Task: structure prediction
Amino acid sequence: MTRYLGFSLAKEEYAIELLSIREVIGLPPITSVPHVPAHFLGIMNLRGQVISVVDLRKRFGLPTATTGETAVMILNFPELSIGVVVDSVNSVLNPEPDNLSPTPDLQGSSTSKYITGVYRKNDHLVLLLDIASALDLSSANKSNNAAVQPKAA
Result:
């Protein structure tokens, strides 16, 4: 059974597969990089490794506000590591298959390609994300832009 890490963005709860997350850290100092998309905050140093940082709130067009709970999830992909800023990290989720629903039909919404399903958790819904699609990593890797840095060897 797949486990997920739940997190909040603008008062809504999302989750991504737990195995794609290396660690969660507090919001570190971030160095800006010129001429990059607005959702790309810059780069950070994590124990000697330079990691790109993306604000998932801006990527989804949501309001941003930094609080004491704002965190960076360090994600591992085959060719890179990337940090994703979220409002807060909530809990590890282990949804029962009976509580999962397929992706809803979101007429004309481009975000539906990022949502892999919906978890009915108690009295609210958690959107399950395909984080690689949400970050558009395939085109970022091809274009080799500044938003994606190769993983250190």
Summary: Residues 139-153 have pLDDT under 50 and may be disordered. The first helix runs from residue 56 to 59.
